[in-house]
Design goal:
By secondary structure, the chain is mostly helical. Helix content is 67%, strand content 0%.
Amino acid sequence: MKEKPLSTTKKSVNLMASRLLAQGKRYDWARPPVARKAVACYRRAAELGDPSAQNLLGEALRDGGGVRRNPFEAVRWFRRAAANGNVSAMLSLGYGFYMGEGAPRNLQFAMAWYRRAARRGNLSAGYNLAQMYGMGEGVVRNLRRAIFWYERAATMGHRGAIRQLAQVYDAPDGGRVHHKKAIFWLKRAAETGDSDALCNLGVRYFNAAGVKRDRAHAVKLYRRAARLENEWGMYLLGLCYRDGTGVRKSARMARTWFERAKSVPEARRALRALSRKKIFETARGSHA
């Protein structure tokens, strides 16, 4: 049966594109033959001018999902989607120019697309932009601008940005330590399950660095980090058991945690000292 020609009015074109987009999203991408049908729907909707379909088609071409991988054609569709205001496509263009995937590597173009997406609220773009400022990629290194974009993404809940801010304020690059900000962001990072932040926050409570000394709380933080398989946390917990600080002294528990943290040189030395029944004095009374 011959198909009826599509109406040329903008309203009907948009309606048809929306229907094709919805149809494509219903297909199961885990099944390649079905995924190809999804891509076919996206392509038809994209050709009708739907920016979401243009972006989805670009992603399929970039990743090789339901269609032969073609990063160059992907970039063309990302450009069309971005021109129509699709923020995800702007992020993808930034990534493409940064990695040189589908287009020649160009850090200035990457930064420009990340900035456009970040200003429209894309957290990943803001984080990537901060990373580029922080490392001086495609621009003169500018820690203030990096912090600005990290904070913008972090306040919206971006885990990577929260962790970066915790590191920046806890161990600033050549600047003074901002204790209040460091503790605030370390706590936020710890809440997300960042084991390094748990260790660093624990060290602050242990040494009274910007907070009231609370070695029992430090032990709790070390233990949480250790449960997340953080070997530095295991080592610090072993020190607490060895010295009886914040927890009841126990050579057996100290040995257990030192053994689990064997990839940490300090833990290996502490373990050897315990086996010789000598007191390991290197970091006694202070954690760093």
